Structure formats: C-alpha cells, structure tokens
Amino acid sequence: MTLTTPALKAEHLYKAFGRRPSEIVDRLRAGSTRAEVTSLGTAAVIDASFDVQPGEIFVVMGLSGSGKSTLIRMLNGLLDATSGSVTIGGSSITGVPQAKLREVRRQKVSMVFQHFALLPHRSVIDNIAYGLEIQGMSKTERTQRARDMVATVGLDGWADSLPGELSGGMQQRVGLARALAADTDVLLMDEAFSALDPLIRREMQEQLIELQQKLGKTIIFITHDLNEAMFLGDRIAVMRDGRIVQIGTPEEILTDPANDYVAQFVQDVDRARVLTASSVMEQAKAVIPMSAGPRAALRIMRDLQTSAVFVTRRDRSLAGVVRDRDVLRQVKSNQNDLEAILRHEATVVPADAHLVDLVEPSVGSDLPIAVVGDDGRLLGVIPRVTLLAALGNVSTSTADVPVQLPPTTLTLEVIAETLRESTTEGAVR
Amino acid sequence: MTDFRLDLGTWVAGFISFVTDTFGGVFDVIRAIFLAAYDVVDLLLASPPFWVVIVIAAILGYLARGWRFALGTAVGLFVIVSVDQWENAMDTLALVLVASLLAIVLSIPLGIWAATSSVASRIIRPILDFMQTMPAFVYLIPALILFRVGVVPGIVATVIFALAPGVRLTELGIRGVDKEIVEAGQAFGASRWRILRQIQLPLARPTIMAGVNQVIMLSLSMVVIAGMVGAGGLGAQVVASLNRIDVALGFEAGLSVVILAIFLDRLTAALGDGETVLGRMLGARAARRRASAAPAAPERAAEPAPERTEPALV
C-alpha cells in the first residue's frame, strides 16, 4: 500500500433492507450468517472495507444478488449505509445532511449507469453538460467544456443529436462523457458496459483504460464479467452473498484464490490475457556468464542434457545463446571467446508480457522464452511446457514437471570425450 | 330489523350546515371567483360570430393533427350550429374548460405529492376512490347548499368527479420514470426540485397528458348533471327534453355533446405524444433539433439482455 491518502475509503459498510435494518446488522456483527437473518430482512452488503488509491481502477466483481450494485450506491449516498462509513477525498458522505451530500456529489464523485440513464429529451451536448449545469456553470462555459468532451470520447458530429438516435455504445460514450465532464476525481461505473454487445464492449474497455491513463481518474467499476474485471482492474474485489471474499490484483486472484468460490469463479477466465510472463517463469538453469568460457558451457550442457545455454554479461544482462555444436568446435579449436559464437535466436520478453503474446514465439523456436527485467537482466525462462501448463491451469509449482530444454544434438560420449581432451590440455579456469 | 340505527347521514348533514353557517363567506368568495372565470370564458366563446370560433378550432385542429382533423372539426361544429345548439354548446364548453383547468391545477400537484411520498399516496388513493364512485348527485346536494343554484355547483361537482384520473395518471407517470435516470440526477447532485422539473415531469409528460385528456372527457360527461342544477348549456337541453319526452331535442343536444367530446379528446390526445406542432410547443424543445442533426447511426443498438447471460457459476 502506498502512503498517499486514499481517493475513497469504505470502512465496515453494512446495508440491510427490512423493517429493522440495524437489528440485522447487530446480529451479523454478533456472528450470524446471512441466511440466519433472512426472517428479519435482506442483508445486501456485509462488512465491506476497502481503500481505493488515486488513479486506480478498482473493480468490484460478483454475480447478480451479490450486493455489488448496493455497494456502489452507498459510495455516493444514493443509498444510506445502515452502518459504517464512506470517505471520498477527505469528505465523509455517511451521516451528513442532504445538502452536504449533494455538494460532495457535485464536486467529488460522478457515476456512469448500466442503461446509460441519459435524459432522452436533451441533446448529446446538453446531456454531457448536465453535471456542469448542476454545478452552476454558465451556459457558454459548460457548452464549451462539453464540446471538448464530445471529441474526447469520439462522438464528433453527434453533439446535437438526441440520445435515442444513437446506438448503445455511443449512448454509453455520452454517459461516460457526462461523468468525465463533471471533472470529479472519483468515477463510479455501475455495470457500465454490460448492456453493450461484446465487440463494442471490448472497444469501450480499451477506451476507458486509455482515458484513465490520460486523465488519471480514480475509477470504481462494478461488473459481473470476470474477463472484464481482469482486463480493467488494477485490483479486484470479489463479492459473494454481500461479503467481499477477496481483494487483490488480477494475478493474485487467479493464481492464489482465497477460497473455493473464487477458485471456481476464475476457472473459466481467459488466463492467457491475465497471467504475465513473470508469474509463470522459472529459474533459468542453463545459463552461464560470458566469462565462464566454452568448456563450462559444454559441461552445463552435458549435465542438463541440453543443446543450448543462455549467456549473460557481467551485469547479468542477457547476451544471447550458444549452441552445443558451436561450443564443441570452439573447445576443439581451443578458443575461449563465447562472444564469437553467440546467437541471438532466443525470444526475449519483458516481465509484464501477457501469456497470449508468448504462444507464437514459443511455437516457432525450440528455445525457452527468456524473461528480462527493465534493466535487461535475465529474470527467468519459460519453456514451452511451462507455458502450456500455465494456460491449461495445470499446477507448475510442483517439481514433478521437468524443465524441458532443447535436447542435445550431440551424443553424450562426444561431449564427454571433448571435455576430457580439453581438460588434459590444461584449460584451468 | 333491529333498533340499531347509525345516524351517519344526519351527522354529515349537521357537518355541512355547520360549514355553511361558519364559512358561508368563504364559499361566497369561491362562488364569485368561479362564476367570474366562467363568465369570462363564456364571453370569449359565445360573443364572437360562430364562424370565427369554428375557424379558430379548425386551426388548432390543423396544428394538432393535420388538415383532415381540421376539416372534421369544422364540419362537426357546423352541425352544432345547424341544429341551433351553438350557444348552448359554447356555454357547455366554457364550463368544461373552467372545470378541467381547475381539476388539472389541483390534480397534478397532488399526483406529484403522491408520487414522491408513499404515505401521501396511501392517504390520497381511498379519497380518490370515494370521490369517483360516490354517485355525482350526492355531492351535488351539499354543492347546491354551499354555492346555490347556477353554474358554480356544476363546476364544483365536475371538478370533484374529474379530479381522480388526473391525480392517478400523474402519480403513475412520475413513478414510472426510469429509476436510473432519476438516480443519475441525484448522482450529479441535483436538488429534488431540479429532478422534478428537468427529469420527472418531462419524462412523465405523455402519461400526465393522458390524465389531462381523461379529466376533460370526464368533465364533459358531467354536463348533464350540471344542467340539472341550473348550469344551462347542452345539459339543460337534455334535462328539458327528458322532462318533455322530446326525442328530437334530446338527440340534437346529445349529438352536440358527442361532437364536442370527440373534438376535445382528439385535440388533447395529440398534445400528449409530442409529435405535432402543438405538442412540441407544449413541451419537447429538443424535438426541434431532431430534424436538423441526424446522420445515420452506424452501429445501431442491438442490445443483448444484460446480466445473467454471462458466466454461469456452478
């Protein structure tokens, strides 16, 4: 966790519907389960606590009835929390008078709705300017701001149309533009893309990420679509039956689910788009420093029964690969410079590359994929079998799965013979 | 038979006479105001030559629905003139307009109140039921006592009878406004008044206008009863023909009522859908932009049902 003040902070939020909501909350606090209080009413949200950092996309994910829509409506006071507190940018919105609440909504938090919730009798531009109008901005100024926003979300030429003349995707762009125009730090998005068809949805997700990087908004995004959550979320909170069962990065949720529910849930996710190279890579064994020379390389090849080893420089950055035949020739001709026989055949990927981008290079080469850090250091390797295991959700943490390296192209006898000869010639390192 | 007798009627009668004695002055003032309103409207309708009124009505009809309705209006009203019921018809129209206006002015705020407060809704609903189902003759009696014979008790009885659909449809319309759009108003920090003015009323307009239409139609259906207490107009003609068993007069007066009813119904119904010149003048400013800006939408919405379609969880 960073030390900056969170953009939004929710502490022990409860929301119960029924005749005596506070009694339900008391019972839940005392340890009753949700099922045990159904006679009194419905506990929609139970003890939800989380912080959202500035500039973060925080996704709340859960199926219908998990309480996610209730939760997001408590974050801007559309629903009163039965218990607990919400703070947005230092202003508390729980237990404050209506006038104060309206002020917070105008200045600090805006919202995008599942079914767009545009005013059908107003033009696109007037819809976008709606938040500014409520803030009390003059007509010319707010129209100007709204026109800029029309371009930002890619609706040029539609400013004077009515929402009814737009397709679903375009209407939601208006909804997004309206929220962005209000220029609040926090953006709440309630199943914002769920009503769109899949292609448009993907386009909108990409545009949202682009806008977020440009504008640096803090976004709280509600969805029932795990792939969407994984794609958008910096962190994801998984909700079930009113409780948050796990909060973590997409990879944490995928690789380390808190319980069976989450594990089952993430089973179907497109792992290739979530998992990164660094999360599946293994320690590189077939690697030697440049200075070690061809004999050491050959020895490692013999020990690991492989035909290629990675070569690193003094600063541990990856220099390339040497192949067994080249090394053998060097040893026989008594040369000592690995640099001369260095090949640059290995695929090198950054640590945050998604697995989906590794499949093709992995198929095209017999070498494991090399994973390097920002400074060029070799962090690990991903052999093909590891990649397949990760994509197929086969556990790679056990040692049973052998690290497969390109098999030797020379017989062991030849290597052993060569090594023996070279040693007798006195090649002491 | 038992000896038990609940003197409900006597108590109500006592209450009415108490009201008459105590607030007589108030009712005289109300009577004067209603009468003045009626006289003004009646003067406007009855004093110009009949063809002027017909031309104006036809123009309104043209603006609301088009030339066919305008033509029908002119022919219909001319039939009224030709059966010599024009002045009576204008008296009736004046009564209907005044009563409808009063009913609308009362019913829309009541409907808004009922829509925003479920307690108010629970209180108002049985009162509306009472007003609508109690035979109109019954509250004609206290109206007669309070306002004396003439056009005013007719107006009052008509207002009470016609109020209910206005209130009901206003409440229905406002409650029927997409909850998410109201939430959008709240989420951006709009005040309740602003949400009412900019979101709820515009979106509920078709339903509210349907209520207005119903109010006017019910007002018209009350003219005969109003005629019985001396309101004059077509109602008085029907009552007279009934007393004299005069089929000819009865048919002519009745037909005139029908023609007025059709004219008012079609006219007000057209105001509700906002698709006509007159409808647009009443509300949708945005509709004016519709003509100007509309390149064809490239990816027109094909929206799959949201939620529950996606990842099925075991």
From TrEMBL, chain A:
UniProt GO MF annotations: ATP binding; ATP hydrolysis activity
Q: Which GO terms describe its cellular component?
A: membrane
Which positions fall inside the ABC transporter domain?
8-266
- Domain CBS: residue ranges: 281-338
Entry's SUPFAM superfamilies? Answer: CBS-domain pair, P-loop containing nucleoside triphosphate hydrolases
GO annotation (BP), single: glycine betaine transport
Q: Which UniProt keywords apply?
A: Amino-acid transport, ATP-binding, CBS domain, Nucleotide-binding, Transport
Q: Which Pfam families match?
A: ABC_tran, CBS
Q: Belongs to which family?
A: Belongs to the ABC transporter superfamily.
Record-linked PANTHER family: GLYCINE BETAINE/PROLINE BETAINE TRANSPORT SYSTEM ATP-BINDING PROTEIN PROV (PTHR43869), GLYCINE BETAINE_PROLINE BETAINE TRANSPORT SYSTEM ATP-BINDING PROTEIN PROV (PTHR43869:SF1)
Record-given protein name: Glycine betaine/proline transport system ATP-binding protein
The organism is Agreia bicolorata
